[in-house]
Every structure is written in C-alpha cells, then in structure tokens.
Amino acid sequence: MSGEMSTQSIVIDAPPAKVMAAIADFAHYPDWAASLSRVQVLEQGADGRAHRVGFTLNTGVVNDEYELEYTWVGDERVQWHLVKGQVMRSQDGVYVLQPQDGGTHVTYSLAVDLGVPLLGMLKRKAERMVMDTALKELKKYVESQGVLR
Fold first, then answer.
1. Cα(59)–Cα(34) distance, rounded to whole angstroms?
2. Model's pTM, two decimal places?
3. 3-state SS, residue 146
4. Cα–Cα distance between 105 and 128 in angstroms, integer?
5. Is 94 helix (H, G, I), strand (E, B) or coil?
6. How many beta carbons lie within 10 A of that of residue 110, not counting itself?
7. Burial level of 41, CB count in 10 A (0-12/13-18/19+)?
C-alpha cells in the first residue's frame, strides 16, 4: 500500500460475518453510503465476492468516477486499491474485522491521493472525515437491519 494511511476504528454490534456481508454487498452501498450515487460490480472473483467495482462519488467537494480492485480474506479482512479514476490518482484501503464481546471491532485504514493538490493536513482531515462517515454509516446500516446470508 502506498502513502501514509489514516486509520479509525468502531465497534459494531453484530458478528464479523454479518459486517463483512454488508461490506461485500456493493448493490446496497447507495442505501447507506450517502456520497455514493452509483456502485456497480464489474467483475466477480472466484470466491463469489466482487473483485472489481465501479463507483460514482458525489461529495459536493469531490466528484469522481473510479474503479477499485478488492482482495478478500474470509470475514477477517478486505483490502482494495484504485485501478482507475478521474480525480483520484490512488486509493489504498483496508477493513480489518476482529470479534469483540459478541460484536465486531472494525478498523478502517485509507490513503487517497487526488489529482488536485491538497495540503497534507487537509488531505488527512478529508480521509478522516470519509472514514468517520463510512464507519458510522456502516454501523447504522448493519445494526438497523443489515445483511444476513
């Protein structure tokens, strides 16, 4: 993974398999991830989970269409990297899930490089905001109804 990563964690009141099922359920991302207007699985992996996914991002500040490639390790870990984007030059991320007291401790790490110059401090603030929002939205989604497979 390239660049300096920002990291945040949250505890979700659901088992890791349920949390990972929500993370892997790209069709429902626009239901809970407010900044994503379109998400489309472009290629499935041999394990049945998405390998390559296309996104349309509308944050008000940054609008982009981009593709990410995913690598899954059971219900413990998923990492991704940017294949192509219009505004983003790179994106490396990872979710690590660990069982904790009947729930799941989720750690999210992210490094994004935009084609638009941003001061390092602003870039890290933006990454933290993206992660904070994503973790809270994921927690709310999983705990409110979530995905059971």
1. 8
2. 0.86
3. coil
4. 18
5. strand
6. 22
7. middle
User: How many helical (H) and strand (E) elements, i.e. helices and strands, does the chain have?
Assistant: 3, 7
Distance between CA atoms of 127 and 8, rounded to whole angstroms?
A: 10
Burial annotation 19-30 (CB, 10 A radius, 16+ → b, else e): bbbbbbbbeebe
Q: Tell me how many degrees the CA angle 132-52-36 measures, rounded to the nearest 5.
A: 40
| Residue 76 host element (H or E) | none
- Give 42-99 pLDDT, tens digit per residue: 999 999 999 999 999 887 767 889 999 999 999 999 999 999 999 888 999 999 999 9
β-pairing, 77-85 vs 36-44, is: unpaired
SS (H, E, C) 28-61: HHHHHCCCEEEEEEEEECCCCCEEEEEEEEECCC
pLDDT of residue 132: 82
CA 98 vs. chain centroid, Å, equals: 16
Longest dimension (CA), the chain: 43
Q: For residues 66 and 75, give the distance between their C-alpha atoms in angstroms, rounded to a whole number.
A: 25
Report how far Cα 45 is from the mean position of its chain's Cα atoms. Answer: 18
